[in-house]
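Good day; I would like, with your permission, to put a structural problem before you. The record follows directly beneath this note:
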Amino acid sequence: MPTISPINNNWWDTSICAEPETVNRIGNLTLLPHAENASFGKKSWVYKRHLYKALAAPSINEFEDILEDAAAQGIELSKSTLELMRNAEYIPFTLTIAKQKQDWDEAIIAQRGANLCDIIWDRLYAWL
């Protein structure tokens, strides 16, 4: 299952990587197509945030603006990542991840996990 923060990486909050349970919590998991997930790799949170935002761009103009903003912030995307992103499907739910402005840390993972569980519970409760 793709994770937002990688299992081992120096660019991320060390409290996330210290415990495997934190990395694999529901709040740190996301659903991305294999190619996009592989391209995101073990990159920094700032890098990934721009890519999540680009995947959720509702128009090509907004998509290009996001990539320009990333470049202005010194984020260099490889040619293969640029091609992949330009051909990727629209994935609107990644915007909720991209809107997280502060560093991705254990507290955010816990809060996102609680929010996701609340949503899931509300939808499944009547069925159970």
